[in-house]
Design a protein that fits this description.
This protein is α+β, with helices and mostly antiparallel strands. 20% of the residues lie in helices and 24% in strands. It has one domain. The chain contains two helices and four strands. The protein is elongated.
Length: 85
């Protein structure tokens, strides 16, 4: 499937893929540089961790996401890691 990127750098995901992976407007996704391409991973947010931690749909592991320019202290990171174990 070939798609074009808009002048703003946006990409429209096909509706079948959005439905399959439960992606709705505002859904969190993680974007990875795999070294040979780009991977977009939909996340299931865990509100008990105040939006910091999502659950990977691919392997079920924790994924930490940040708001732009948000910095966590080492204590906050340790607490998040504790809660995900």
């Amino acid at each position: 499937m070939i798609k074009s990127i808009s002048v703003k750098g946006q990409l429209v995901l096909p509706s079948k893929l959005r439905q399959k992976y439960g992606i709705t407007p505002g859904s969190p996704v993680n974007i990875y540089d795999t070294g040979s391409g780009i991977m977009i991973e939909p996340l299931r947010s865990d509100t008990s961790k105040k939006g910091f931690v999502g659950k990977s749909i691919i392997d079920g592991g924790p994924v930490v996401s940040f708001k732009r320019k948000q910095i966590l202290t080492s204590e906050q990171v340790a607490k998040i890691l504790e809660e995900t174990e």
